[in-house]
Amino acid sequence: MKKLIIANWKMNCDTIFLQDYAKKLKSNPCEKFDFFISTPSIYLQLAAKNFDKSIKICAQDCSEFENGAYTGQISPKNLKDVGVFSTLIGHSEARKYLNQKDENLNNKIKNAIKNNIFTIYCIGEDLSQIDKVEEVLSAQIDSIPNEANESNLAIAYEPIWAIGTGKVATIESIAKVCNIIKKICEKKSLKNIKILYGGSVNLENCYDILKIKEISGLLIGGMSLKIEEINQIL
Ligand code: PGA
Asked: Fewer CB within 10 Å, N or C, the chain?
């Protein structure tokens, strides 16, 4: 089975960047990996139009509500309507800056699943929680609703201290934490859930991380903005 690479552009793009990236992206980009591109919501349609159909378009968040008086929000139904395949949910930056809580995240995932939007659920500990990783991740995994399974959700393990910092978790610790995540998931009857790694992935570490048996792919922030480097991985 192909591993998955997700380019998380965060809030770092504009029309010219997107069009240039599409032009420079290697042909046959999903030959070795499945490849998702996650853009700010205003560019999702442009991405769907510009990129090869083999590439899946991914939002960075979605509303927990179906529809209604929620000014500023975007529902999974809206995402589906404009050709989006997937969404990130619970990214540490959304938890932090948008004040998203476990209960919101549980509702968001339920809503995404209901509307056939594949969830990339992000979890991870911060520096102060390193000694209680299992407890922290277990509480975050508790937000995954019962209707989730491997066909509608994958987990992205992103240690918060590694995001955008250049500090990468060691191969041993990534493998160890993935096994912890697997065990927690199995207790919740979540079998065969894919686990991705994210946090300062670069050209030097990506191949070793991809070799980890428990890892099904990478969620890449900073490096995903560099088309030449992405082309090297794909
Ligand atoms: P980074 O971001 O690769 O820049 O550390 C990863 C992420 O936040 O998804």
From this structure: N
Angle CA(219)–CA(223)–CA(226) in degrees, nearest 5? 130
∠ CA 44-91-191, nearest 5°, is 100
Element (DSSP H or E) covering residue 157 = strand 153-157
pTM of the prediction?
0.97
Clarify whether 158 is annotated catalytic: yes
The verdict on the CB of residue 198 being under 6 Å from ligand 1 is: yes
133 confidence band (pLDDT: 50, 70, 90)? very high
CA distance 57 to 42: 12
In degrees, rounded to 5, the angle at the alpha carbon of residue 149 between the alpha carbons of residues 77 and 95 is 60
Beta strands in 167-232 (DSSP E): 195-198, 217-220
Whether the predicted pLDDT of 232 surpasses 90: yes
Q: Tokens representing 117?
A: 């939007």
Rounded to 5°, angle at Cα 142 from 138 and 146: 140
